[in-house]
Amino acid sequence: MIANQGSYKQMFWLLLLTRGMVGVGEASYSTIAPTIIADLFVGDRRSRMLSIFYFAIPVGSGLGYIVGSKVKDVADDWHWALRVTPALGALAVILLITVVREPPRGTVETHSDAPLQYTSWAADLRALSRNHSFILSSLGFTAVAFVTGSLALWTPTFLYRSRLAAGTLQPSPSGHASDSDSLTFGVITCVTGVLGVSAGVEISRRWRRTNPRADPLVCATGLLGSVPFLFLAVVTAKQSIVATYVFIFIGETLLSLNWAIVADILLYVVIPTRRSTAEAFQILLSHLLGDAGSPYLIGLISDRIQDDRPQTFLSQFRSLEYALMVCAFVGVIGGGFFLATACFIQADRKRTELYVQGQFHESPEGEDRIVVPQGGRPTKVPVSSVLI
């Protein structure tokens, strides 16, 4: 909300500062909100609630294109596209203060009001670094963020350049993408987000009945399945803009299968007292190596390709076309990380279930596991012994 005040200023540093403050708020809610959901619901109901929560990412992104495009047309000034959002932020703050109550950590899973054992932040990080399912799924999700970040910034521009290269559109006075492309892409992002997130959760829920590795396999299928369609969207843009929109629709739907499932994986492979730290680390990793740098990298590659070509509409289109193909390679790598997650998901989930059931505890350093038998004295044993 505060970053929008920067739209009234002519100083870049002030806009940068206020936008950074918004980033702090976004990081806080993204870290805490899923863990609150985890402390309110379990099992399939938790998965459904997470899917509702994660509708916000694709739907909000799509609405940003739609609302921004329309407000710019009405006000004839793009600054007002930034100024309409504070009202929504204020409404969210009021609802958070008046409605949301923080539940006790892990109570819904342990069925007990007894406090859980907390470890230090350093011990949490050490334990998370040994959690294969968490690390691998986070890397897979980083690939998803890389692709979605690139598409979010460059797709309207790419479609605009494809029309210029095909000679079906005259260049706009501003030199930027047309409002129709931004509006269409925004609608596609909203619809595919709702379809993809809900379909991903439902497919995973049904498949999980027969395959305990269903979650990472659905993520891998969605990411790997989106690759050929996003590739076709890029290579067919000059020949048929309609075909490009169709391929983008299918590719983004498959890409959106991941959002809620990745969050659910984190919540059941990480113990309750460590989930906020895990969420923070996953968000940092996915933004740092994903959508924060991918638009810049795509633009940099496009510029380097164009340096050796004459400055024409076709060369501008081709350079961005080749740069966007990087997303296909990143998608394949991310799919591999999700497939690797499937190899460890059962053991990591079982360990977390044993912890919340009180059948073993961790030392304050987050290393030794202590099995608590039904009778007799507690005995320290390796993790592998607990899970066998």
The ordered H/E elements are HHHHHHHHHHHHHHHHEEEH
The total strand number stands at: 3
Instruction: Give the averaged pLDDT, no decimals.
Output: 80
CATH class: Mainly Alpha
How would you sum up the global shape? globular
Which ranges are low-confidence, i.e. pLDDT below 50, for 5 or more consecutive residues? Answer: 5-9, 370-388
Give an account of the 3D structure:
Keywords: Lipid transport, Lysosome, Membrane, Signal, Transmembrane, Transmembrane helix, Transport. By secondary structure, the protein is mainly alpha-helical. It has 17 helices and three strands. A three-stranded antiparallel sheet has the order 1-2-3. Helix 14 (294-306) crosses helix 15 (313-324). Residues 5-9 and 370-388 have low confidence and may be disordered.
Gist?
It is a multi-pass membrane protein. The chain is mostly helical and 388 residues long.
Keywords for this entry:
Growth Hormone, Chain: A; 388 residues; mainly alpha; three-stranded antiparallel sheet
Task: Itemize the secondary structure elements and their pairings.
Layout: H1 12-38, H2 43-54, H3 56-75, H4 79-83, H5 86-98, H6 107-110, H7 121-129, H8 132-166, H9 179-207, H10 214-235, H11 241-255, H12 258-269, H13 275-291, H14 294-306, H15 313-324, H16 326-356, E1 360-362, E2 369-371, E3 379-381, H17 383-387
Antiparallel strand pairs: 1-2, 2-3
Helix pairs in contact: 1-13, 2-9, 2-12, 3-9, 8-12, 8-13, 8-14, 8-15, 8-16, 9-10, 9-11, 9-12, 10-11, 10-12, 10-16, 14-15
